[in-house]
Design brief:
By secondary structure, the protein is of the alpha/beta class. The chain is built from nine helices and twelve strands. The strands form two sheets. The protein has a ten-stranded parallel β-sheet with strand order 1-4-5-6-7-8-9-10-11-12. A two-stranded antiparallel ribbon has the order 2-3. Helix 4 links the parallel strand 7 (about 170-175) and strand 8. The radius of gyration is 23 Å and the shape is elongated. About 30% of the residues are buried.
Length: about 325
């Protein structure tokens, strides 16, 4: 389908333009190409790409020609807004042969388009970031709304995140850096502090014991999803989270595989009481939660808006607490 797109060439760019303006190949059934309304909450449109020449967000006063500085192609020429084809895709750089072939095809198509093809990637997954440096040169990071990175150096993450404009979701795993006091980590915090639209943060497997306050200080207060699985938070961290501005906005919280109940349950109880107005999904698997601690937490859980599908606490004994738990989940 992409190969059949009629794109401008240098030879005929002055004579005609493609009739197709947007091709959406994303798999999400909720994907749309026209905004029903522009909300005050987020300055970016969720559907049409704000960085394409065909964007519905561009005003009549916009410049008639646009260059694409991200493309590593010295022969690119400016084109009028009516000459650009916008291609929306979700990409996963996962190292498979099929992925490699598709990415090579995309690179070739982008070079042949001489700037008349705009590649808009809203959802980007990168496994082993150093292996895809060349392909990243063909992407406009400002288009990215959801970013997942597994196995990368922190400096590479900083370079990419700093170029995003309206990042909604950020998931980081196996990120390599020297220490929390280093220059690159401070750069990372500065990048996080500029992500005003961030709603979901996944720091799974990043050991941040007694350092959670450093992240909460720079994260937007309206953030709704936080994953701290395998992060080793202490009771001090849980207390700080309960006192943070983010606590009263959280809808999803994952604290699985952390021994947060090994010392006391009161910090987590305070967190539940702060989040009871918004929290809808809670995961506390393998957290050393005992029957006595759970029994003390049941009143707070009963006031949360967590449903049956939103509570997950495997590896628990429970014993005689099943009726109370079932009553809470069904209420």
């Amino acid at each position: 389908m992409i190969d059949g797109l009629q794109l401008l060439s240098v030879q005929n760019s002055s004579s005609w333009g493609p009739k197709l303006q947007l091709l959406d190949l994303r798999q999400d059934h909720e994907c749309k190409i026209i905004c029903s309304e522009i909300t005050i909450r987020f300055p970016s449109c969720c559907h049409s790409c704000a960085y394409s020449q065909n964007s519905t967000l561009r005003t009549e006063e916009a410049q008639p020609t646009v260059r694409y500085p991200r493309f590593d192609n010295s022969e690119s020429e400016p084109h009028s807004a009516l000459e650009t084809v916008e291609l929306q895709v979700d990409l996963s750089f996962n190292g498979t042969l099929r992925t490699q072939q598709f990415l090579s095809f995309l690179q070739r198509k982008l070079r042949q388009s001489f700037g008349s093809l705009h590649l808009c990637c809203r959802d980007l997954e990168i496994f082993n970031m150093p292996a895809y440096r060349r392909m990243l040169q063909f992407l406009n990071p400002q288009c990215i709304n959801h970013l997942y990175v597994n196995l990368a150096h922190l400096r590479e993450v900083n370079n990419l995140v700093a170029q995003t404009a309206h990042l909604y979701s950020l998931c980081l795993s196996n990120i390599q850096f020297t220490c929390f006091a280093g220059r690159r980590f401070h750069t990372f915090l500065n990048c996080l502090g500029k992500l005003d639209s961030l709603q979901e943060l996944d720091l799974c497997n990043l050991y941040l014991r007694d350092r959670l306050h450093i992240f909460l200080r720079v994260l937007p207060p309206q953030m709704e999803t936080l994953n701290l699985s395998l992060c080793g938070p202490s009771n001090k961290d849980v207390t700080i989270l309960s006192q943070s501005s983010q606590a009263t906005h959280l809808r999803q919280l994952d604290l699985s595989h952390n021994h947060i109940f090994s010392e006391a349950y009161e910090p987590f109880q305070a967190l539940l009481e702060r989040a009871l107005g918004t929290l809808q999904h809670l995961e506390i698997n393998d957290c050393l939660l005992t029957d006595s601690a759970l029994s003390a937490l049941l009143p707070a859980l009963s006031h949360c808006s967590i449903g049956k599908s939103g509570f997950s606490a495997r590896s628990l004994v429970f014993r005689g607490l099943f009726p109370q738990i079932e009553e809470i989940l069904l209420s």
